[in-house]
Amino acid sequence: MANLVIALILLFQRVGDRPLTRAIHAGLFLAVAGMALGYLMGFEGRQTTTDASGRVVELAARHSVGVTDENPGLPVTNRSTSGGDVRIPHFFGLHGLQVMLIGALVLSVLASRIPWLRSEETRASLTVVLALACTGLLGVLTWQAFRGQPLIHPDAPTLTALGGLLAATALAVRAIRSRAGTGSRDPSGRTRSG
User: Of 6, 112, 148, 176, which residue has the fewest beta carbons closer than 10 angstroms?
Assistant: First the structure.
């Protein structure tokens, strides 16, 4: 709840330039959505496991969908390889703020080298595209997990959704690039959107 309150407070504040402000707003939305996904693990059913002493313990929640949590997992992360795993979209959402801030930082650094990125409006628009792409990816990962599908074994509908998301993102970036390229030049020689 505290994170939601902070996100709402920051929603009405401008922090830095427009790209950074939009990155913070979108990143906080993604982080709160990721936190909320953690609560959904409580609705996936009960299961039993053994504790360190070998006693059977009943758990009121599980993160796997379609299989139990004890099934094989990916190296290091132990994410399910035989069913859906809610921890995947949960993790992605939680780290959405970092993704958005890194995106804004990269755009800022590239602006000194790439002329069409010098406009704050262009970078702010690209930040919105990144936010929408991350939100779309969070949606696809959540949809995949709740259908009981492992991350590493996507089916045709999941691949189609990812392909559509990638195509829409590429088209949006291309449209912004085209608009930035047709901007007029101010007396200093910088391009500004018209």
Answer: 112
Confidence of residue 67 (pLDDT cuts 50, 70, 90): low
Model-level pTM?
Answer: 0.75
| Helix, strand and coil percent figures for the chain, each rounded to 5 | 60, 10, 30
Average pLDDT over residues 44-63: 67
Residue 61 CB burial class (10 angstroms; 0-12, 13-18, ≥19): middle
Question: What is the residue-wise DSSP string for 139-187?
Answer: HHHHHHHHTT--TTS--HHHHHHHHHHHHHHHHHHHHHHHHHHT-EE-T
180-186's contacts with Cβ under 8 Å and 24+ in sequence apart are 180/116, 180/117, 180/119, 180/122, 181/116, 183/119
What is the DSSP-derived secondary structure letter of residue 85? E
Collapsing DSSP states into helix, strand and coil, what is residue 60?
coil
- Helix intervals (H) in 52-155: 87-94, 96-111, 120-146
Strand 184-185, strand 191-192: pairing:
antiparallel
